[in-house]
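Message: A physicist's question: would you kindly supply an amino acid chain plus fold tokens?
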Amino acid sequence: MPLDPFRLDGSVALVTGSSAGLGAAIAVALADAGADVAVHGHSRSPAEIEARVRGAGRRGVAFAGDLGDRAVSGRLVDEVVAALGRIDILVNNAGIIRRTPAVDFTDEDWDRVIEVDMTSAFRLARAAARHMIGAGRGGRIINIASLLSFQGGVTVPAYAAAKGGLAQLTKALANEWAAKGINVNAIAPGYMETDNTSALRADATRNTQILERIPAGRWGRPDDVAGAAVFLASSASAYVHGHVLVVDGGWMGR
């Protein structure tokens, strides 16, 4: 084990959905730990986060594309390898949410959420693993799950299904790839101050109900997840496989 097992010097990471929120915080934390980082965005440019990666003294490249488009998820890993020479860390963070009662939930919204939140994560993990196995160096794959990997939620049937599936996918891939030196794990953030929770935080009743259940007494912030990502990306987690690490201010223990 290296002198500092949390350092990522010499590694190349791809963080999807890293133009803002959790993904941005994770990308910057990986760069601060020594990794070169490919950032990615769709509805918002990742250029600012790319600049922060370079400001940390690391190589940074930015990619744009809709992960609901299979042509994009099919080529993104190869583009990162072409730009930075390798891939050692994949963080599947990109995700969307649609809030509609189940009886009114459309097939179109269902298909899009499942595609972005779960299917693209599998496609990216598959592509990354092929490179990692071919290079013989192993690697790290980190999926960003959710408390709804364990709970059902309300009016978010596709999101709950996708995040539940992502937790199981994490375990399934870990079973196959652990012996090949690839650690596949997930982080399940609690209630975080991100675009996905803006509707909940704007609802005074729901906001109060949520805060009353969180032992830490506050919403999480993107930086609260960054340390967990560095841990799972580093050699400090070498014997951690197929784990879903909850970062929730104590919500699940309540």
